[in-house]
Amino acid sequence: MTALSRAVAIDAPAKINLALHVVGQRADGYHLLESLCVFTEFGDRLAVETSDEDRFEITGPFAGGIPAGGDNLVLRARDALRRRFPASTPPVSIGLEKNLPAASGLGGGSSDAAATLTALARLWRLPLDSSELKEMGLALGADVPMCLARTPLVARGVGEALEPLGRFPALPLVLANPGVEVSTPAAFRALGRRDNPPLPPLPVLKDAAALVDWLAATRNDLAAPAMGCAPVIAEVLEGLDRHGALLSRMSGSGATCFGLFRDRLAAQTAADELRSERPGWFVVATIANGTED
C-alpha cells in the first residue's frame, strides 16, 4: 500500500438456519419463510484496499469453482455501490478468502456480499445508514440483509423482515458437509407443500439447553427434499448424532448440517473424530455468536 492508500478487512461469517419453516409462496414465486438464524465465528474473510485499478482475487480452500467474473456477488455488491455513488468509488483491490464451501446452505455468497457492502462503504466513506445498506442488500439477494445484521435473529417474508434477538446464548457447534452441492431452486421445487405451520413462539432463553428444547418443536422444511437430491445428508446427521450432538439438523437448503454441543471442547472432539472418519468431508468446530440484553 502507498502512504495514501487505505484498507479494510472484515469477516464474512457462515449463516446457520437453526430452524427453517416454509409458510407460503407469493404470486411472483418467492417463498415465504420463517427462520431462526445465527452467525458463526468461522467463515470467509474479505479485504479491500485502494488501488490503481480494480482487482479481485479469490484464495482459500474453496476458491476453486467460485466465479471471479461479474456474476460473483462480491463484484455485484461493488458495482451496486458504484451505481449509487459514481463519483466516490475509485478503483479498489478486493481479496476474498473462501473458507466456506459453495452451494452449501451456509449463506456464503450472501455473507460475502454483505461484507463487501460494509467494507467498501467504510473504505470509500460513503454516506449510507443501515437501512440503506439493507435495501441495497435485498436487491442483491434475499439473504443479504440478514447477513448485514449478522446477529441472532428471526427472519420472515422472503428474508427482508428481520427481528434481532436481544438475548441469545452462544452455541458451540460442528459444521459438516459431505462435499456435495444442493441446488436451492431444486430443493424448493421438490417441496411437498408450501403452507407449513410457522415457528412456535420463541420464549426467553436462559441457556443453550432451553434453546435445544425449543428447537425440538421446529423443523427445516427443506431437509426432506434436499435429502432426495443428496441422500448422503442422512449420513452426516447420523455422524453428528453418533459423536454426541444435542441436536443435529441441516442448514438452509443443504448439504451442510450442524450439530449443537454442550461446550467448545465437546464440539472440537466431535469434529476431530468425524474428520478422521470422513477425511473427504468439510468438518469444522466453531461457535455461533450470541447476544446479551
Distance from first to last alpha carbon:
41 Å
Query: C-alpha Rg, in Å?
Result: 19 Å
Averaging pLDDT over every residue, what do you get? Answer: 94
Structural class: alpha+beta
CATH architecture descriptor of the largest domain: 2-Layer Sandwich
Give the overall shape: globular
Q: Encode the helix/strand succession as letters.
A: EEEHEHHHEEEHHHHEEHE
| Strands, total number | 10
Number of helices, counting only DSSP H or I runs of 4 residues or more: 9
CATH topology annotation of the largest domain: Ribosomal Protein S5, domain 2
Largest sheet: 6 strands, mixed
Could you provide a short overview of the structure?
It is built from 9 helices and 10 strands. The chain is an alpha+beta fold and 293 residues long.
Topology:
Elements: E1 7-25, E2 31-50, E3 55-59, H1 73-84, E4 92-97, H2 108-123, H3 130-140, H4 144-149, E5 153-157, E6 161-164, E7 171-177, H5 184-189, H6 208-215, H7 223-229, H8 233-242, E8 247-250, E9 257-260, H9 264-277, E10 282-288
Helix pairs in contact: 1-2, 2-3
Structure write-up:
The chain has 293 residues and is of the alpha+beta class. It has two domains: 7-164, Ribosomal Protein S5, domain 2 (2-Layer Sandwich), CATH 3.30.230; 171-288, Alpha-Beta Plaits, CATH 3.30.70. It has helices at 73-84, 108-123, 130-140, 144-149, 184-189, 208-215, 223-229, 233-242, 264-277, and strands at residues 7-25, 31-50, 55-59, 92-97, 153-157, 161-164, 171-177, 247-250, 257-260, 282-288. The strands form two sheets. Strands 1, 2, 3, 4, 5 and 6 form a six-stranded mixed β-sheet that branches. A hairpin with a 6-residue loop joins strand 8 and strand 9. Helix 1 (73-84) packs parallel to helix 2 (108-123). The longest helix is centred in the middle third of the chain and has 16 residues, at 108-123. The chain is globular and about 55 Å long. The protein starts with 6 loop residues before the first strand and ends in a 5-residue tail after the last strand. 42% of the residues are buried.
